[in-house]
Amino acid sequence: MLKYFEKLYKKGATSFYEIVNYNLKIEQKMFIVTANPETFTEGSNNKDFDKLLLDNNTILIPDGIGIVKAANMLKFDVLERITGIDLAIKLLDLAEENHYKLALLGAKPEIIEALTKVLKEKYPHINIVKTENGYIENKDVFFEDLVRLEPDICLVALGIPNQELLIYKHLDKFKKGVFVGVGGSFDVLSGSKKRAPKIFQKLNLEWLYRIVKEPKRLKRFYNNNVKFIFKIKKLQKSL
Ligand code: UDP
Q1: CA–CA separation, 176 vs 188, rounded Å?
Q2: Residue 217: which residues within 8 A CB-CB, separation 6 or more?
Q3: Phi and psi of 86, rounded to 5°?
Q4: What are the beta bridge partners of residue 157?
């Protein structure tokens, strides 16, 4: 697990966005994983996911507060969170400014439809080259078709670990593009789910808001976050 923390991007959102902007301009391919405790736990339990996280070309950013807190406990100097949803919004802004090609895969059919509509209104200069819902059986076909469209940005919202595994499987076929797994972001960006109010965001309590709104998340939260903290405490003692 320490290796994941070593790899985390530590310098904060502003400098990270500059790198993303630059890489888009020079058409340097990027695979970004937005890390939560669940991400690192999956890496410890799943060989393929571990390989993907440790690949030199994979960039890990600290999405969840649990990751930032754990990193600090382990004496890694992580400046701040860079959330998946904020990164997605930043990418959309850059796409609007530069007329980039955008591809979207994931979420329920009605959500991806609503999202496409919202984006077309709000970001008229984005070139949306391909969209697909996340419940089609063969998702490989999406990527196989996407290669010839050469997207600048590809957002995949299937939940962890599927979104990352799928991107990683097809990444070699692409010459350029920023690829990111964005979890439940399409639900929020389409307007069908509310993001936690600003006060929750400020206090780093978005996770609490999501549990209160969707109590079935509690088990997932316990399995990934509570157990994770115990693991980090143990690791801390062994250092
Ligand atoms: N999803 C999907 N296909 C699936 C399973 C999930 O497209 O087979 C979508 C789901 O509709 C949701 C997203 O993946 O939009 C995962 O959201 P979740 O809130 O679980 O992600 P988190 O942000 O918590 O990682």
Answers
A1: 27
A2: 210, 211
A3: -65, -40
A4: 106
Dump pLDDT digits (tens) for 129-151.
999 999 999 999 999 999 999 99
Q: How far does the chain reach from its first CA to its final CA, in angstroms?
A: 13
pLDDT at 197: 93
Provide the pairing of β-strand 101-106 with 127-132.
parallel
Closest to 15 (Cα-Cα) out of 82, 101, 114, 102: 82
3-class SS of residue 145: helix
Q: Please say whether the beta carbons of 116 and 127 come within 8 A.
A: no
Compute the C-alpha angle 222/227/231, nearest 5°.
160
Q: Retrieve residue 172's tokens.
A: 């070699």
Ligand 1 centroid distance, CA of 71 (Å)? 26
pTM assigned to the model: 0.95
Quote the longest CA-to-CA distance of the chain: 53
CB of 161 within 6 A of ligand 1: the answer is no
| Ligand 1 centroid from CA 35, angstroms | 15
> Are 45 and 64 spatial neighbours (Cβ–Cβ below 8 Å)?
no
Say if CB 33 and CB 59 are below 8 A apart. Answer: yes
pLDDT at 226 over 90: no
Q: How far is the CA of 41 from the centre of ligand 1 (A)?
A: 18
CA distance 98 to 127: 10
Tokens (6 digits) for 104: 């979207």
**H or E element at residue 84:** helix 84-98
Residue 66 tokens read as 């649990």
pLDDT confidence tier of residue 221, bands split at 50, 70 and 90: confident
